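Lecture 7 notes. Example A: sequence first, then its structure tokens.
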Amino acid sequence: MHDIRDDEIDAICACDGTIGIIPENYWLIGCDAALGNRSKKNYKNGIEFIVETVDYINKKTRRRNYDNISVGTDFDGFADAPNDLYKPSQLPYLIKALLKNGVSDENIRKIMSGNALRLLRYGWGNPS
């Protein structure tokens, strides 16, 4: 499920922003067990959807260098997380899937923390 339009991707890239992807069933596939519209046990695993979304967004960016993609976790128990990515110990499975999809170690570091940290450093103490 891709809820971001090409013009939104362009605007985020133009200001060196980042598009956040979270392991939450509603945002990944449009279904949420809490809403009763689908049984959680029938969901495809979320890692597959995250890798697909990372690939989709990267292909839509001008530079295609993963500078505008970040993965957050939301492991606070509030989100309806997918079965294969609901706790920190499962993050290596996401990293392995990204590697298998051809994403380099350097770009995985950007996606998993680097891009978000870059924006935090840029924003803190820098009035607009």
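Example B, a different protein, same format:
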Amino acid sequence: MSIRRLIRPIRIAFFVLFAVSFALTLGSPALRAQSVPCLVGHGAGPNGWIREDDTPVGRLLRDADALHNDPSPQVTELYRNVLTAAENLPDVDTCKARAFFYAALYFRGSDAEKGLALEQRSVAIDENVLPAGHPRRILDLRDLAGFYAFAHQPAQAERLYQQVVSLLDTMQGLTSLERMFTFMTVADFYEHQKNFSKAEALYRNAVDASASLQPSLRSTALMARSGLARVLGEEGKQDEAHALLNEPTPPILPPPVPGTSVPRPDLSAPMAEIAQAAQYASGRNFQGAEASYLRAIAALEKMNHPAATRYLIATLDGLGELYRQQHRDADSEAVLLRAFRLWEAAANAPGTKRAAPPDLQTLLLIYKDEGRLGEIEPLYTRALEIEEQLPEKNDFVVTAMLTDLAYIYCQERKYEAALPLYQRVLAIHKAKWGPDDPKLASTLDQYAEVLEKLNRPDEAAALRARSSRLTSSAHN
């Protein structure tokens, strides 16, 4: 019996993703790929880009994104469907270019050449449709360079990055956020090439660009400062690196909470600590990272504000993963359980933005290693209850939790308890995609395996035959 998404990489530098959350709806299209399904080049919005969730391509991308780009057969099939739908769009539709871009990001992890080819097609559409001075054009060069770098073609990547840097001096229309992230992207390339002097200069440009960010995006400035501090450390300038991260930061205020008049707290101090923790962790200074996380947690605890609670949950989650990496499973368990209880308490609070659930799968690994899987059952049950009560529940999150819980039951040989969970997963899939969708195949196989354990071979054989038919139809 397998479990999808059971093992996730340790994300000690989760601060980077967390800080970007403010920017995702306003910043560069490259960074928005994980949260904005489809963008077209007209209408209101930053740089003239607006969301197009209700197009067929947009709906497919939104569904794929809900699974967090895990390399599972189900998500791979979704992105194949994205490409099929995109091919039906005319070449003058920039939504087609965005679809190719998001699919390229997904496929490059398993097939770098395919990812690069899709990104090249995306860029070609934009070059034919958008005027020469459009800000998307410089971002296209940046993104294409990133694909070359990922495909281990550094010479081509550097050639494009040099064009990007030269254009940044004259290109109009880029936001301060886009300029900052573009400088950071090129700096990151040179950092990986061990050219720390060039990386330092580019990170300094990114820091300068971040000075013009609007207040709601100030948290992202810490990303530029963290990158610069990291490179300074590589150059042996440790004192300058620590001084940079310890400099006072402008106030970082979270977005207002609808329906409340509670003053927004200044998050600059705890977020600086989180940045420092990521810096320490990247150098495997676990003691320093832990101390910074604990200071951030202490500061967030005092704020008594929904936005601070969301950061607190994420910070506890990061600390729990740090402990897990050090094989301090008891400490990791305690921290992650606390994060879960905070999330549980805040999940349905009126007028608040829902926090992302903490990392149940790290807890699942801990309990599995220690033969205590039964203890995580109530957590999954409660998490499912919360997710299913949301006005706009995410069916993908629900089915993933159902599948994980079914895995737990199967590991404990509670096959009768797993059956209704797989039945619910099948029902959700059938309602969403219909009875003949190939995405049902993997669930049918798992369900069949449970039926075989219960000595119901005829039913299992029927399900496996149906799974085989769906798989064959997907390849025809």
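Note on Example B: Residues 28-174 form a domain with the Serine Threonine Protein Phosphatase 5, Tetratricopeptide repeat fold (CATH 1.25.40.10). The chain has a mean pLDDT of 78.
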